[in-house]
């Protein structure tokens, strides 16, 4: 529907630009169509006329549909207009126009920033229509347009039996994913998403387009691999090296008893597991059948067969029989359909901490204590970790901007709620903060930029760690006026 409208608007926008230079005709047209949407006015007419894609103003019929975001809690920041870019030239036109007219800009690809940092009160430069992927089997290189999503990676990967380290959520943008490092079930075996990046094209704040790779602007190439989206410019292309896929065994297993022992024993298994094992561990609390019923889930994949997975997991099965078990060996992309999620918009606040060792018994007790004291919303709360290690550590920590390659896990508290939970929200957020603070001694002060968090106060240390000064130097060079910024971005 939007596609049809887009072409209409595009034509309409060009007509509007022509009208701008013929005021007499414009006045006649206006008097005949007083109930029609206003469309771009003032300086916006010039921008609309220069775009191949369309410019959707606040009063346009499509605006509400496009003014969405994964993080529903932050929808109150409303752009003046959304540019649906169809080409790199459109992105350049938006940036140059916004600079001339002093309008704030932000890029949006998948709109899945946890803090909704792809929103602005100015011009939202939306790349979601620029979502093609070309794959060359001879080189195993995939060329992703800047607005491609995991969804298109799945489609291209399945057709060619190749993959990269992608996320589970099909609606997440490859731009945000790759620029923030990018974690997924392949990362321990194949590295982070950013480790597969070969080159990228970036529209800078002055409208210049640069290519960064190991040989072209290598310091920029260093900086964009792991420091997060929204820092230096707008990426319109990513060239990524893919790897061939084979069968994997996917699994989802649940326990409702012996939880502390399951926690410890599974952690031992996970830390000793081969890189072919990718896993997310979740301790959940639910209010569905009485207050704060706890249960554990593990979700992931093993490049190997079911027998190998069962052998790996035997110690934890010896502690207690699972209350639910699903596992199956399948071709890689069939397995991903069981592991993936759509990522529909929701009310959520996620807070993370990197850990550099195992969670010790006192840390485990702290986690269980807070989960048992959860004030409660209508959605299950989760404390979880994504197991790191494996080949992520094969890359030296200063080889890319991703600052915490030696971490063992990313731990996270995932609080979700529904509109009817408003009355208990402040209590839940206070609990979230106290829990997050209580975990610092057992994890670290470092946090994951891809799960960017508005409540994180030491954000420069937390997100950029040892790389802050080097990143600032690149920032000063590429974006000296700090055009690309959000409250947690790299300062000048
Ligand atoms: C449901 C869900 C599941 C997730 N799963 C994973 C996962 O498995 N692995 C993982 O690593 N992360 C995951 N994330 C985190 C996700 O990678 C980050 O939130 C990422 O920033 C989202 O990218 P996006 O393009 O969708 O978001 P957007 O909101 O569009 O952008 C995020 C940031 O990047 C900037 N940006 C967007 N496009 C561009 C561009 N083309 N050039 C430059 N800057 C740009 C934006 O301005 C903003 O600052 C998940 C997030 C959610 C909500």
Total beta-strand segments: 18
**What is the CATH topology assignment of the largest domain?**
Vanillyl-alcohol Oxidase, Chain A, domain 3
Q: What is the CATH class name of the largest domain?
A: Alpha Beta
The Rg value, from CA coordinates, equals: 24 Å
Distinct compounds present:
flavin-adenine dinucleotide
Number of domains: 3
Uncertain segments are: 1-34
Query: Describe the biggest sheet?
Result: 7 strands, antiparallel
Strand content: 15-25%
The proportion of residues forming helix, as a percent range, comes to 25-40%
Number of helices: 16
Distance from first to last alpha carbon: 42 Å
Structural class based on helices, strands and sheet pairing = alpha+beta
Second CATH tier, the architecture of the largest domain: 3-Layer(aba) Sandwich
What's the mean pLDDT score? 92
> Widest sheet: strand order?
15-12-14-13-17-18-16
Shape: globular
Task: Give structural notes.
The strands form four sheets. The chain has a seven-stranded antiparallel beta sheet with strand order 15-12-14-13-17-18-16. It has a five-stranded antiparallel beta sheet with strand order 5-6-10-8-9. A four-stranded mixed beta sheet has the order 1-2-4-3. The protein has three domains: 125 residues, Uridine Diphospho-n-acetylenolpyruvylglucosamine Reductase, domain 2 (2-Layer Sandwich), CATH 3.30.43.10; 125 residues, Uridine Diphospho-n-acetylenolpyruvylglucosamine Reductase, domain 3 (2-Layer Sandwich), CATH 3.30.465.10; 211 residues, Vanillyl-alcohol Oxidase, Chain A, domain 3 (3-Layer(aba) Sandwich). The protein is globular and about 70 Å long. It starts with a helix and ends in a 14-residue tail after the last helix. Helix 1 packs across helix 3. The chain has 492 residues and is an alpha+beta fold. Strand 8 and strand 9 form a beta hairpin. The protein is built from 16 helices and 18 strands. Helix content is 33%, strand content 23%. The structure holds flavin-adenine dinucleotide (FAD). Flavin-adenine dinucleotide binds next to strand 3, helix 7 and strand 10.
């Amino acid at each position: 529907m939007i596609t049809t409208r887009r072409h209409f608007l595009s034509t309409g926008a060009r007509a509007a630009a022509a009208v701008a230079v013929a005021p007499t005709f414009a006045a006649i047209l206006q008097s005949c169509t007083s109930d029609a949407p206003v469309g771009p006015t003032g300086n916006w007419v010039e921008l609309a006329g220069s775009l191949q894609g369309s410019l959707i103003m606040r009063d346009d019929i499509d605006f509400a549909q496009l003014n969405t975001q994964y993080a529903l809690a932050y929808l109150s920041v409303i752009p003046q207009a959304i540019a649906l870019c169809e080409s790199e030239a459109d992105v350049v036109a938006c940036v140059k126009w916004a600079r001339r007219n002093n309008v704030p800009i932000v890029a949006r690809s998948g709109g899945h920033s946890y803090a909704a940092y792809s929103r602005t009160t100015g011009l939202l430069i939306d790349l979601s229509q620029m979502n093609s992927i070309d794959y060359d089997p001879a080189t195993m290189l995939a060329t992703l347009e800047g607005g491609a999503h995991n969804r298109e990676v799945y489609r291209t990967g399945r057709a060619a039996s190749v993959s990269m380290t992608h996320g589970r959520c099909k609606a997440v943008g490859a731009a945000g994913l790759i620029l923030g490092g990018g974690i997924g079930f392949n990362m321990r075996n194949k590295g982070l998403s950013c480790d597969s990046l070969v080159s990228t094209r970036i529209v800078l704040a002055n409208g210049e387009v640069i290519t960064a790779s190991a040989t072209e602007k290598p310091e920029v190439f260093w900086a964009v691999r792991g420091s997060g989206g929204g820092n230096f410019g707008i990426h319109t292309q990513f060239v990524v090296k893919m790897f061939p896929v084979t069968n994997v065994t996917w699994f989802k297993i649940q326990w409702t008893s012996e939880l502390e022992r399951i926690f410890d024993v599974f952690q031992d298994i996970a830390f000793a597991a081969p890189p072919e094992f990718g896993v997310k561990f979740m301790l959940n609390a639910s209010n569905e059948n009485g207050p704060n019923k706890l249960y554990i889930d593990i979700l992931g994949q093993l490049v190997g067969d079911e027998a190998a997975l069962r052998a790996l997991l035997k110690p934890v099965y010896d502690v207690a029989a699972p209350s639910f078990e699903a596992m199956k060996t399948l071709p890689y992309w069939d397995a991903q359909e069981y592991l993936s999620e759509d990522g529909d918009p929701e009310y959520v606040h996620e807070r993370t901490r990197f850990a550099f060792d195992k969670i010790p018994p006192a840390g485990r007790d702290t986690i269980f204590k807070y989960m048992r004291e959860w004030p409660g919303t209508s959605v299950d709360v989760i404390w979880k970790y994504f197991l790191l290690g494996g080949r992520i550590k094969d890359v030296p920590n200063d080889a890319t901007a991703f600052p915490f390659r030696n971490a063992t896990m990313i731990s996270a508290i995932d609080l979700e709620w529904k509109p009817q939970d408003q009355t208990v929200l402040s209590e839940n957020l206070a609990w979230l903060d106290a829990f997050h603070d209580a975990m610092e001694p057992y994890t670290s002060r470092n946090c994951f930029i891809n799960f960017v968090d508005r409540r994180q106060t030491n954000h420069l240390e937390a997100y950029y760690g040892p790389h802050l000064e080097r990143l600032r130097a690149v920032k000063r060079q590429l974006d000296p006026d700090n055009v690309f910024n959000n409250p947690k971005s790299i300062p000048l």
